[in-house]
Amino acid sequence: MVSTYISAVNQKLLFARxxxxxxxxxxxxxxxxxxxxxxxxxxxxxxxxxxxxxxxxVAESYKLKEVELVTDGDSLVALLAQQNKCPGEATELQxxxxxxxxxxxxxxxxxxxxxxxxxxxxxEMDIDRLPMIALDAPEAMDWRIEQAQVWxxxxxxxxxxxxxMMIEF
Length: 169
Known about the structure:
- A two-stranded antiparallel sheet has the order 1-2.
- It has helices at residues 4-25, 33-61, 73-82, 88-98, 103-114, 145-168, and strands at residues 123-125, 131-133.
- It has 169 residues and is mainly alpha-helical.
- 27% of the residues are buried.
- The protein has one domain.
């Protein structure tokens, strides 16, 4: 039986890749900071969902009873430990998530920043004469398309490698 999570993860990875390919195929050599932020944030949302569903796929592969309780690497490890299981995939996900400066902790931090209300310093007018909140607030992220590409590549490699390991299990 094929896991629904595998298909869902594949879909989110595809959506992230397609968002990045839209910029590339449009031949856009330099995008505005607003365009880069829009694309990068959209990719981050897709990758975060792929990450969550991959965590749940790992849980499902190791026969965790309440897969929907998995919300991150920490909960995955804790719930599997309750069933006396400690698979390497789960501990790797937890370590990457909690290691400061890892690509995964950076991705998860970027996702968290999407939902933070920025501190307004001043209103600026964009090309369409709409007031925009200044993006250079202290908590602002550097939303670069290149970073989104790195996150996508790293997540795809991690998922592919872990899927191969779980097949052997």
